[in-house]
Write a structure and sequence with these properties.
The protein is mostly beta strands and about 260 residues long. It has a single domain (about 1-215), classed as Sandwich (Jelly Rolls). It is built from two helices and 17 strands. The strands form three sheets. Strands 1, 3, 8, 9, 10, 12, 13 and 15 form an eight-stranded antiparallel beta sheet that branches. The chain is globular. The two termini are about 25 Å apart.
C-alpha cells in the first residue's frame, strides 16, 4: 500500500527529530508522481530555524525528469542527478547516497548518476519530512504516491540498492544501520516507524494522504529468479539467482 499526496493540500508527514545530521547516510523511497513538469519533494531533512540548511530527495520534473539529491548549505547549493528519467503515474524507486561532504550520488531504479563533489554540509538539522521540503518554511510539496521510505546512517552499496529497487522491504536491508522505516501502508494513523528509532510521523496539511495501491514490495517480491539474502550483524546482503523455484525457496527458508 501507499499514501497519495496532493500538492495543493500540502500533504506531508513530519517529525521533529533528525536521525542523521552528518555523513554518511542513505535515503530511499518508492514514488509515483502525478506529472513530470513539477518539482516534487519526496523526503527532506532540515533546520526549521533557517531557510537555507536542508537535504532533500526530489523528483525534478521541472528540470529533466531526473531524481535529484538536492542540498542547501547556508545558501550554497549542491545537486546530484540520476542519468535516467522517471515517468508520470508510474512507480519508480529512488535512492540517494552521500558518503562524505564531497561525494553524493542519486540512483533511479538502482541506476547511478554522476557523483556530485561540491563541498556541502548543511547544519542544524532538527526535523524530517515526507512529501515536502522542510526548513523555516515548507515548500515543494509532493503530488502523487509515496511508499516504503527508508533512512540509514551508512552509505548503502550497489547490491543493497539493487535489492531495494527489486522490491526487498526496507527492514531487510542493512537493519543494524536503519534509522527510519516508514512503509506508509495505511495501517496506522499517524504512520509508524518500523526501525528501532520508533519515530512515528505527524500529519500535516489539509487532511491525511489517502490510502492507495503501492509498489511491488514484499518479502518475496523481486526480479525473476533472484533472491536477496540479508547478512547477519548488520552487514550487507546478496542477490542470488536460482535455476529453479525450489532453490529459491530453500534460500528463503534460511533467512530470519
Amino acid at each position: 500500500m501507499a499514501r497519495t499526496f496532493v500538492a495543493a493540500n500540502s500533504h506531508r508527514y513530519l517529525k521533529a527529530v533528525a536521525p542523521v545530521t552528518t555523513y554518511p547516510f542513505t535515503i530511499a523511497a518508492w514514488f509515483r508522481p502525478v506529472d513530470i513538469t513539477t518539482e516534487f519533494t519526496i523526503f527532506s531533512i532540515g533546520d526549521t530555524a533557517t531557510t537555507d540548511n536542508w537535504w532533500s530527495m526530489v523528483a525534478a520534473g521541472h528540470d529533466g525528469d531526473v531524481l535529484r539529491f538536492h542540498l542547501n548549505d547556508s545558501g550554497s547549493f549542491g545537486a546530484a542527478d540520476s542519468d535516467t528519467t522517471y515517468a508520470a503515474d508510474v512507480w519508480s524507486h529512488g535512492c540517494v547516497v552521500s558518503t562524505t561532504a564531497t561525494n553524493r550520488v542519486a540512483y533511479l531504479n538502482a541506476n547511478p548518476g554522476l557523483t556530485n563533489t561540491s563541498d556541502r554540509t548543511p547544519d542544524g538539522a532538527d526535523t524530517i519530512a515526507i512529501g515536502i521540503r522542510v526548513a523555516s518554511s515548507l515548500s515543494k510539496p509532493f503530488g502523487g504516491r509515496i511508499a516504503h521510505v527508508g533512512l540509514w546512517n551508512k552509505a548503502l552499496d550497489q547490491l543493497e540498492i539493487d535489492a531495494l529497487a527489486a522490491g526487498v522491504p526496507v527492514h531487510r536491508v542493512r537493519p543494524a544501520d536503519n534509522v527510519g522505516d516508514w512503509p506508509l501502508w495505511g495501517l496506522h494513523s499517524p504512520e509508524i516507524d518500523l526501525s528501532t528509532q520508533n519515530n512515528a510521523l505527524t500529519v500535516g496539511g489539509t487532511g491525511e494522504p489517502a490510502i492507495a495501491d503501492g509498489p511491488p514490495v514484499g518479502m518475496f517480491t523481486r526480479a525473476p529468479n533472484s533472491i536477496f539474502v540479508p547478512a547477519v550483524a548488520g552487514g550487507g546482503g546478496a542477490l542470488m539467482s536460482g535455476s529453479s523455484r525450489g532453490i529459491g525457496r530453500g534460500i528463503m527458508r534460511g533467512v530470519g
